[in-house]
């Protein structure tokens, strides 16, 4: 089950597509090493389509069959081993990247409208992480959120913002 995006409307979608196009024309996309060659090739198109007319669930569904079965992983003791790609990889990638572009779009809207962003739970969780729960209700500066997400593509940002698999995102406030 995907995230519940409270501000996913036509304007947010327009800005998400604009941010996707910005990445396509400059710094590139985050490409999961779990995606197979076909998945990496189709990723920009599928992401763009989901932003324009779908959501993280439709993106995950469109990615089925586009993941590797195994990936090479470094062992703590040195050397490499083969590890199975999790069956949840389509949902995890879709939620994290769709949510990242959603937050970027909302940051732009907040800048334009003189608003802030507030963290909320977008997916129910039977066992929410304490760090995620602590963030709920936290106001975020849209300028900082936009800069960090553009720079990091949502991968290990250096500020405390909603992360993949956390079940949280932001709303305009």
Structure write-up:
- This protein is of the alpha+beta class.
- It has one domain (10-172).
- It has 6 helices and 5 strands; from the N terminus they run αααββαβαβαβ.
- The chain has helices at residues 10-25, 37-53, 56-63, 89-113, 130-135, 142-152; strands spanning 70-74, 80-84, 117-121, 139-140, 168-172.
- A 3-stranded antiparallel β-sheet has the order 4-3-5. A two-stranded antiparallel ribbon has the order 1-2.
- A hairpin with a 5-residue loop joins β1 and β2.
- α1 crosses α4.
- The longest helix has 25 residues, at 89-113.
- It is globular.
- The chain starts with 9 loop residues before the first helix and ends with a strand.
Number of strands: 5
Spans where pLDDT lies below 50 across 5 or more residues: none
The average pLDDT is: 93
The value of Rg in angstroms is 16 Å
Structural class, from helix and strand content?
alpha+beta
Helix content: 40-55%
Q: Give, in order, the helices and strands.
A: HHHEEHEHEHE
Head-to-tail CA distance between termini: 25 Å
Count of structural domains: 1
- Helix count, per DSSP? 6
Silhouette: globular
Strand order in the sheet with the most strands: 4-3-5
Major sheet: size, sense and barrel closure? 3 strands, antiparallel
Query: What proportion strand?
Result: 5-15%
């Amino acid at each position: 089950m995907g995230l519940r995006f409270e501000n996913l409307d036509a304007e947010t979608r327009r800005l998400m597509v604009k941010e996707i196009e910005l990445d396509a024309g400059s710094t590139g996309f985050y490409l999961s090493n779990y995606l197979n060659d076909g998945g990496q090739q189709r990723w920009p198109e599928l992401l763009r389509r989901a932003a324009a007319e779908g959501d993280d669930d439709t993106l995950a569904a469109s990615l089925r069959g586009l993941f590797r079965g195994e990936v090479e992983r470094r062992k703590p003791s040195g050397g490499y081993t083969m590890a199975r790609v999790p069956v949840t990889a389509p949902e995890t990638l879709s939620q994290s990247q769709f949510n990242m572009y959603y937050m970027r779009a909302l940051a732009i809207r907040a800048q334009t409208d003189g608003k802030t962003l507030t963290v909320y739970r977008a997916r129910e969780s039977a066992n929410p992480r304490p760090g995620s729960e602590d963030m709920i209700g936290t106001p975020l500066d849209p300028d900082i959120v936009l800069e960090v997400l553009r720079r990091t593509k949502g991968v290990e940002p250096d500020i405390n913002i909603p992360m993949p698999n956390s079940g949280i995102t932001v709303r305009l406030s």
